[in-house]
Amino acid sequence: MRPFLFILLGLNVLLFTQLQGWTPNLLEDAPEPQRMKKQLAPTIATPVSLDAAGNTASTLPPPAPPPTECFDVGPLTAAEAEALQLNIARADRELKVEATQIDDGIAYMVMTSVHSSLREAQRREQQLRNLSGVRETYSILEGPLKNAVSLGIFNNKESAETLAGSLKMRGADDINIVPRPNPPKAGVRIADVPKAKVEATRQLLLQLPVRACPQK
Predict the structure, then answer these.
(1) Does the predicted model carry a pTM greater than 0.90?
(2) 8 A C-beta contact, residue 131 and residue 167
(3) Which residue among 38, 47, 177, 197 sits deepest, i.e. has the most Cβ atoms within 10 Å of its Cβ?
(4) What is the 3-state secondary structure (H, E, C) of 125-191?
């Protein structure tokens, strides 16, 4: 009986000293393998679903497309555009070629006022020929300018103004300058030309009006 009391008293003393911090904590001073075992035991890895993995992958930026170039050729006549497309197809069938239309800008016509009849227009045309020596004249036979006299068509306004000013200085006070759109011309677009084929494509376009395609 007395030994049991000594053991119980000893356990109480040991518990009291641990609570007071007088003796090392048995759990904290456990050997390193036991400490790691206690720390890792509650940890459970959470599996990632295939859907979640797919969503993560979808947020990545798509790979950049390979660099290419694009050429607009023209303005050309319809026959020139057709011949160029055939030539490119024979040289490299993998090139993307399409027919286009190109706005050829504004032309400026120097003309007289509209006359009351074709006879009056032709009489005025002859007077202006004698006055200025201009030979590229004709009487307009139809349309809203019917029975006016055309004295020349120019691709830039400065040339038209020079002729009109010269005629007015010689007494022709019925001269006007009328802008009019040129009819669209044919063109050819060669799109998505790989860098490796750019130089060979340029060789096919020598002596032709070529420019880079507009940016999208």
Answers:
(1) no
(2) yes
(3) 197
(4) HHHHHHHHCCCCCEECCCCCCCCCEEEEEECCHHHHHHHHHHHHHCCCCCEEEEEEECCCEEEEEEE
